[in-house]
Structures are given as structure tokens and as C-alpha cells.
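Example for reference:
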Amino acid sequence: MRAQFIEEVRVPTGRRNLARRFRLPRRTRPPWQPPRARILFTRPTNPPHRVLLQRLYFVAGLCALAFLVLYFDRNGLQDATKQALGVIDVAYFTMVTVMTIGYGDIVPITARARLIVAFFIGPIRIIIWFVFLGTAYQFVIQRAIEEFHMSRLQKQLHDHVVVCGYGLSGSVAVRELLESGVNPESIVVIDQHQAALEAATALGVAGLLGDPSREDMLQQAQVRAAKAVIIAVSDDPTAILLTLSVRNVAPTTKVVVRIQEHTFQRQLRQAGADVIVSSTKIGGLLLADAVQSRYLVPFINDLLSARGRVTLVERPAATHEIGCATNAVAGALVVGLVRDGTMMSFYEDAPCTIDKGDMLIVIQSTRTPGTAAE
């Protein structure tokens, strides 16, 4: 099959040398087990002033309800003068009772009034206090805790991977990184949906709730110090905008973009994408190949997966491989060699001698030497 599944943007030699530091080598690892979930939200779902205003309306409604009930039963209340209570007196009694002040100048004197205060006003008082405590926790204590955890996270982030968008493609990319041996603490997921972040953080990665196209969110994720940024949003124009934002914040960070329509590749090149993956094109090519073959598509899936029996790896030439011919490397099939920014492939170029500093693209088994075949 002569189809090319992933199109890599041509970049200058200096950028290629810089990109070598950002490789993610795939190594044979034992089956990965997800650690304890860690969830980090840097922003509330709604703006603080809107949340506070909604809660004030809710408390005012409860107080108004309590006032109406007490006003209709105002004959069951009595003050020190033993005169009939007016609207102001009932409003005063409602507020001091709800706020648990209780001066004692107005008291319930009938059984019905006492039942109303005990079983109606009492629960309202508890609900209002829970609202006050929850507001204080969310806007004072929780914000301080989040800022503390955020500062610790930013200090620890270096050579990490930022995944923008945790949909179908983003979730598969995160799991593949974990299966290939990447530390979960070195992966940061940015998404606007809390449910998606909860699913991501269940794998042990860090999650930031917000719009990944905002530069302040990218700066909080420390994209300038990141090894790579994976853009896996569902909308192609949004992917172009996000690529521009990442390039503005981190000019040298490797940017890998997933798109659906092949027609957006030119715009993504201009925006600064390093690698463009067209999921629609890849799927279409595999579907077409499956018509004429039976084992080709399963082999390619096995080849691209870190948990497969064979894997496709880009790595620097090992010490014992220097001086060997590309078609004589033990335990691996060299399908490509990159030297000084020039790519040499086995199907176009003759075998050559491997030099120090060469990058090899090899197909190798994930089994350790000596392992019996299954």
C-alpha cells in the first residue's frame, strides 16, 4: 500500500533538529493501570457574579416565602405590648428568626405558630445557612485551594504534552500516550466540558476547564515549556484558530493537529502546524484497502498501537547500530533514515551505512528477545 496516512509539514532543517528533542519513544511496558483520579478546575462553570446573584435571588425568595406564611398567621405571634402586629413587625420577626438572632421581643403563642416556626422556618434557616457556607467555600476557600494546586502544577510542568479537546480523537490520543509509557502527570487536558475532564482525570492526567483557544488557558498549561501540543477539537476552523493561539504563545513547541477535511491543510501550514493528521483521509484509505485485502488493516492497526505486537518507532540510531547497513540491523526493520533533515526510505534509496546522529524509522517487535511466540 503506497498511501501516506500522516502528512508532515516541511520545515527548515533547524526546526527538524529542534523537533528531535520532542520525540516520544515507544517502549515495551507492562499493562498500564490507571492511578487515583486527580481533578483540577481553574475556573467555575458560570461567572462568579452570576452565581452569586442567583443565590441571592434564591435566599430572597425563601425569606419572602417565610414572611408570607408568618403574615397570614400573624395572630399567633405576640410582642411585649400584646398589640396586633403589622407588616413591619412580621418582616422584622421573619428576618431575626431566619438569621437565628432571636431577641425574644416577638414570640409565637399558639400551637400552629410554633409548628410553623419549628417545621417550616427551621428548614428554611438551615437551607440559607448551607447556601452561605457553600458560597464562602466556592469563592474563598476553594479558589485559594485551586490557586495553590495550580501554582504547584505549573512548577512541575516541563516537557509535558498538552491535549486540547477530549473528544473521541483526544481520548484515544491520551490513552495511546499512556500505553506508550508517558507519565500521566506529564499530560494536561484542556476542555470546556466538565464531564470530559472528569473522564480524562480518571486516567490520572491533569485537567483544565476552559476554552483551549484562549491564550490565558494556554499559558496556565505552560505550553511554552511543553514537549508538544495535540489539537483534537471537533471543528476544523477552531483547530486553525487554536493553532494560531498556540504559535503566538509558544513559537517553538511542536504542534500536532487533527482535522477532518483535507482542504484545511494549507491554512494549517500557514498557521504553524508541524504535523497534520487527516482522520477522514486515513479512514477512507483504510476502508478502500480493506476491499482488496483481509490482513492489511489489522496489521496497520497493530503497527500504530503501542500495545500491538509490532510497532512503528522513530528513534535515534543506537551505538551498536552505527556502522551497520540499514538492511542489516538486528531485531528491527529500518524503513527510513533521516540525516541532516533529508529523508531516505527503503523503497526509493539504496541501503546505506548508519552514522552517528541519524534518526531511524523502524518496525520492531514489542516482545523482548527470547520470548516464545504465542
Summary: The longest helix spans residues 111-156. The chain has three domains: 7-30+157-307, 48-151, 309-369. The domain at 48-151 is CATH 1.10.287.70 (Helix Hairpins).
